[in-house]
From TrEMBL:
Alphabetized UniProt keyword annotations: DNA-binding
GO molecular function: DNA binding
GO biological process: one example: response to ionizing radiation
Protein name (database record): Replication factor A1
Upper lineage: Archaea, Methanobacteriati, Methanobacteriota, Stenosarchaea group, Halobacteria
UniProt key word Transcription regulation: no
Region (Disordered) location: 40-63
Biased amino acid composition, Low complexity: 49-58
UniProt xrefs under SUPFAM superfamilies: Nucleic acid-binding proteins
Gene source species: Haladaptatus litoreus
Length: 423
């Protein structure tokens, strides 16, 4: 049945307006509330307590699937996070985290405050099941019952949200981290309530660096500050985990120094691409080609996209603004990645800035000569590239923050490699 059919049947059963029921049902489904759970919620809203489904079956967490309508599980609470969402035009606080039993763990979202605490063992009755990030997730609503258990559960997972940047993954909620703020920028964005001040930048710990967004623009998050942050949630941004501070995140200064890992994670190209996206990685390989769209280019003054023959894909005919860029293919023998150099790094490898590139293009009456000059300088040479990697259906791109020719002697490196193999 589609939404319209569910709404018609429900409205007929309840004796209320179909369009009103349909609008409420669509709102709930848009927030991934399972259909059965949504229909029960609407029955309660319109004063019908007689409805219900068959008694939900008890299940081990490892056996829970998205095909199940409602289930009952007994589990230990691993984490509890809190954030707000906009639901039906109003702010709605939700609680999120993970539960575990001896068979496995599962994430949950609670639409009601059940006053959950990490470490306690609970039986969750009549929890809905939905899909989240490709996996089953428990949905705890008004029809869900939560009972505290006296007996403990031995689970093979850490209780509480303490983690490190190297271990967080998109979708994590209720995370606690001790961090150093490396970079911070104040921004004003068009938020859901109009112009909103936020902070964004980079945080680090002993294990990694990651981008962050603070939706409350806290004064504590200044460059160089060391803090403990509780109740963080993690999203994916441009293929990498992004640390998010919500209105419910608590941030406290700490007296100890958080040692920062200054070096990027060194990976082969294949290892890097297999991550699906990574922040601050380093690969080394030969430049085998410089792709079209390198050298002297033009960008749309409205959106910054590269203009092709005076045409922007979003804004049509525009007067493009000159810029410098390199898209270099790096091959280390395990795979290839496109290193994208901004105007500053491009000027370094070109040996001149924008004015020099314009002059060379005018003299040759062909702006492609700038890219040709860059090709002659870097193709066939080995470079170390550091930056942020994104991977999509169109390939892997490494937005370079560093691009430097290696000074290793290939013969010495080959000899060392052979020695390791012989050993």
């Amino acid at each position: 049945m589609n939404v319209d059919e569910h709404a018609e049947a429900l409205a007929s059963d309840l004796g209320v307006d179909k369009e009103e029921v349909k609008a409420d049902l669509q709102n709930l489904i848009e927030y991934s509330v399972p259909v059965d759970e949504a229909k029960q919620s609407l029955r309660r809203k319109y004063g019908d307590e007689s409805s219900g489904s068959s008694e939900p079956s008890s299940a081990d967490i490892a056996d829970v699937t998205t095909d199940m309508g409602n289930v009952t599980v007994t589990a230990k609470v691993l984490t509890v996070g809190k954030r707000s969402i906009r639901y039906q035009g109003n702010e709605q606080a939700i609680f999120e985290g993970e539960l575990a039993d001896e068979s496995g763990k599962i994430s949950y979202t609670a639409w009601t405050d059940f006053d959950l605490s990490p470490g306690e063992v609970i039986t969750v009755g009549n929890a809905g099941v939905r899909e989240w990030e490709g996996n089953p997730e428990l949905n705890l609503g008004e029809s869900t019952n939560v009972a505290r258990e006296e007996t403990d559960l031995d689970v093979s997972y850490d209780v509480g949200g303490d983690s490190s940047l190297a271990d967080v993954r998109p979708g994590d909620r209720g995370v606690s981290l001790e961090l150093t703020v490396l970079e911070v920028e104040d921004k004003v964005i068009d938020g859901r309530d109009g112009e909103t001040e936020i902070k964004s930048g980079v945080v680090a710990d002993e294990t990694a660096r990651l981008p962050f967004t603070d939706w409350e623009a806290r004064a504590e998050l200044t460059e160089g500050a060391t803090v403990r942050a509780d109740n963080i949630y993690v999203r994916e941004f441009r293929g990498v985990p992004s640390i998010n501070f919500s209105e419910f995140t608590t941030v406290e200064p700490i007296s100890r120094d958080v040692d920062v890992n200054d070096s990027a994670t060194k990976l082969s190209v294949r290892e890097a691409v297999e991550t699906g996206g990574a922040f601050d990685v380093e690969v080394t390989g030969n430049i085998v080609a410089v792709r079209d769209g390198s050298g002297l280019i033009q960008r749309c003054p409205e959106c910054g996209r590269v203009v092709q023959k005076g045409q922007c894909r979003s804004h049509g005919q525009v007067d493009g603004e000159d810029d410098l860029r390199v898209k270099a293919i790096v091959d280390d023998g395990t795979g290839t990645v496109t290193a994208i150099l901004d105007d500053e790094l491009t000027a370094e490898v070109y040996g001149g800035g924008l004015e020099q590139a314009r002059e060379q293009a005018r003299d040759a009456m062909d702006q492609e000569v700038v890219a040709d000059t860059i090709r002659e300088k870097i193709v066939g040479h080995e470079y170390r590239v550091r930056g942020n990697l994104s991977v999509d259906d169109y390939g892997a791109n490494l937005e370079a923050s560093e691009f430097a020719e290696t000074d290793d002697d290939p013969a010495v490196r080959a000899k060392a490699l052979l020695s390791e193999v012989d050993a």
